[in-house]
Amino acid sequence: MSGTAAASPEVSIIVESYNHAEGSSLDRLMLSLRAALRTARDHGSTEVLLADSSGDPDLRALLEGDLAQVRHVDASGHRYDDAKLVAVAQARGEYVLFLDGDVIPERDDWAARHVSSLRTGPATSGFSRYEGGFFQRLCTVMDFGFLLPATERELRCYASNNAGFQAGTLVECPVPAGPLRCNCYLHAEQLRQRGTPARLVTGATVEHEKQPFWEERFRRGHDQVAACWTNKELPEARLVRLGPLAAPLFYARDVFLDWRRLMRGRRDLGLGRAKAAVGLVLLPILRLADLPGTVRALITPARARIVSPASQTDPTP
């Protein structure tokens, strides 16, 4: 399993440190790396790489002892997607799995479940949910609801924190550059247009670290509009030309999708009928927190929408 073994591994697991640079703790990243090593041992013939763009001078020194098998990849100066692609270029596996540094697989066979599907398809996504209780389950609906219900099916978007690819797919159709921190929506659309859509893998579930509510809601509100800048095929892209007048329409669309996804996926979230009914009431209230970010994106002039792929500056605060 060692990253220094002579034989080429079948699988490369890439963990990123970009989230650590954004504020996720070093302890959380260490937990993710240890989880990556456990699932690597479970599957066999697997290497673990750390795409390190964090700039933390203490991080590399921690890759010793039980973490000594993690291969450090210097991705300094690169943003979220680009840091992963730097590691992809150095990965030796036939299959490449993305596991973010702020998520923990629920099961040690996480890698095996992705690879089982990747043997017959080019891309996969597992189900991602926030750790915690009822409130975090509602946040899961808002941020990862596109993965509900968690059943085997084709996806219009994958979860970049919990995804897999045939290595050749990332060569032929790499993650595109764009104005977002993560361009998984556009990449998933490109895969779909090639006739090779990503598929949801049941059982490949990860628990995502809790996020600061207001900061995350602003970013999510902004990014749903920013996604339309590069992917004009999205149904909601036509709303952008209305400017800030489109904000209520984005809000109404989100609430409708939240309600539908909650009712279809409540069992995947462990919610009974009573809690789901409370969720139907609370979700429209929680979604109001997205509006400042949505308005910010809708009033952003076209000339300010594109950032350098190598820049550390994120257009979504």
Report on the architecture of this protein.
The protein has 317 residues and is of the alpha/beta class. The protein has two domains: 11-208, Spore Coat Polysaccharide Biosynthesis Protein SpsA, Chain A, CATH 3.90.550.10; 213-304, no CATH class. 41% of the residues lie in helices and 13% in strands. It is built from eleven helices and ten strands. Strands 3-2-1-4-8-6-9 form a seven-stranded mixed sheet, with helices on both faces. Residues 1-5 and 307-317 have low confidence and may be disordered.
CATH topology assignment of the largest domain:
Spore Coat Polysaccharide Biosynthesis Protein SpsA, Chain A
Strand portion: 5-15%
Mean pLDDT: 92
Strand order of the largest sheet: 3-2-1-4-8-6-9
Q: Give the biggest beta sheet.
A: 7 strands, mixed
Query: Could you tell me how far the N terminus lies from the C terminus, measured between alpha carbons in angstroms?
Result: 39 Å
The amount of helix comes to 40-55%
Q: List the total number of helices.
A: 11
Indicate the CATH architecture of the largest domain: Alpha-Beta Complex
* CATH H-level superfamily of the largest domain: Spore Coat Polysaccharide Biosynthesis Protein SpsA, Chain A
In the predicted model, the low-confidence regions spanning at least 5 consecutive residues are 1-5, 307-317
As a whole number of angstroms, the C-alpha radius of gyration is 19 Å
Question: At the first level of CATH, what is the class of the largest domain?
Answer: Alpha Beta
Number of E-type strands: 10
Whole-number tally of structural domains: 2
Which of globular, elongated, flat, extended, rod-shaped describes the shape? Answer: globular
Provide the structure class: alpha/beta
Order of helices and strands: EHHEEHEEHEEHEHHEEHHHH
